[in-house]
Amino acid sequence: MKKKISEGTKFLNDVHSAFDKAAKFTSHDDGLLNQLKICNSIYKFYFPVEIEGKVEVVEGIRVQHSQHKSPTKGGIRYSRMVDEEEVKALATLMSFKCAVVDVPFGGAKGGIKISPRLQNDKTLEKVTRRFTTELLKKNLIGPGFDVPAPDYGSGPKEMAWIADTYATFRGDDINALGCVTGKPLGQGGIQGRTEATGLGVYYGVREALEQKDDMKKLKLSTGMNNKKVIVQGLGNVGYHSAKFCQEGGAIIVGIAEWDGGLYNAKGLDIEKLIKFKQETGSIKGFPGGKNIANSMEVLEMDCDVLIPAALENQITEENAPRIKAKLIAEGANGPVTKEAEEILVSKGVLIIPDLFLNAGGVTVSYFEWLKNLSHVRFGRMEKRFQEIQATNYIATIEKNTGKKIDAKARKILVHGADERDLVYSGLEETMIHAYNEIREIMLSTKGITDLRTAAFVSGINKLAASYKTLGVWP
Ligand code: NAD
């Protein structure tokens, strides 16, 4: 009889088999490959927290997959279900993800075994501050060591508590704000971080849809316009992916949440829906679409693009045969199991892997960290200079041509880049460059037929190069 394994173990096994599959297309020796695969440090700890008059023991986990670059980087997952194997899988993905998008960090991930949905802010603050203190005791947090960020179940609020706790203990660290990213803007954050992962998903999907040859194979027209999209999870990643795709011309036909789903072939209004969710706590009962009790059914409904943006192991060998999407865009980490991928690829579905597609978060986290270390907002030094320069160009053109540039065009031309402009532009460039890099590996390597393997090959080669230049390897 087949032994039942946990969701976390399944996830880690799938990450390892994707690594092994890709490693065969590289020329590194087995010793180095083993080093690149294994998680370097694993720290698991338990601490007491008083919750509603009762002391509860909370489990915390921090895993650093690879310290080939400093700091290591990765979000903290707040979930009742989080376990060590799952965090190991996520930390491993982080190392290769950073490499794929040329972010100079090692990979890490954390977990706190608590359900944020069931706790009030006071408890969450206590838990977060205590978790940070435990990391501090072991030098497992700091702008040069290990820098957490948000993940499933956490956001800017928790990151602000982490930064404040770190600064309380390390007041002499002038770079203290760089100990965590995804902070609120007023507390060392950066414009564009909140939406970064979803915006990166949009840039990545848009780039994939622009490839004429690939779209021909999928029997899809090129471009985002009028593409029917279904999103699973209307949280940070899902909401922003849906919002930017809708703004880019796509029709969001379906949304699946943990407690129900919605479908409307004519399109759901994402802004109205998120407002409804914020007010009622659920998407259930939203009047703009057909309510579907079993949200997993939504994933199987008619669409061109499916964006799973909730959790791992959502598309399995069980539901994969019924998926209608031609393109699956992994907003979440590990949403498609290995077995499901085999079924989908054999049906001709194009999968844009997590390893590349949700790297927008860590890319903008990198920008935030740079901002914290430089102690200056992006655009502060050059915005006005650019505006004066553009005004002078316009004046010269008008003088020499005798023609006036209209007010609307003048406004666009004179606008100097502010922080958000620079972050969006840096992220767009990163996603387009990385997509074409992994696509090129796929097209030019005999035997590679999927983007996940290509992305792992890219990541493995870049990590291997770091180990070699560090002199760690012969
Ligand atoms: P989040 O907590 O903001 O949102 C997750 C959403 O999924 C919530 O709305 C939740 O209710 C919903 N959900 C939970 N179980 C579900 C189910 N069974 N079916 C449908 N919906 C369900 O989390 P997030 O930050 O958006 O993270 C989502 C995924 O994206 C995770 O896999 C995470 O690792 C990955 N990710 C997040 C970031 C980031 O910057 N936040 C970066 C990279 C990857």
Q: What is the assigned CATH homologous superfamily of the domain at 41-187?
A: Leucine Dehydrogenase, chain A, domain 1
Mind telling me the CATH class of the domain at 41-187? Alpha Beta
Number of strands: 12
H-E string: HHEEEHEHEHHHEHEEHEEEHEHHHHHH
Q: Say what oligomer this is.
A: single chain
Beta-strand residue fraction: 5-15%
Q: What is the name of the CATH topology of the domain at 41-187? A: Rossmann fold
**From the 3D coordinates, which CATH architecture of the domain at 41-187 would you assign?**
3-Layer(aba) Sandwich
First and last CA, distance: 44 Å
Helical residue percent? Answer: 40-55%
- Number of helices, counting only DSSP H or I runs of 4 residues or more: 16
The whole-number mean of residue pLDDT values reads 96
Structural class designation: alpha/beta
Sheet with most strands: strand arrangement:
9-8-7-6-10-11-12
Large-scale geometry: globular
- Over all CA atoms, what is the radius of gyration? 23 Å
Low-confidence stretches: none
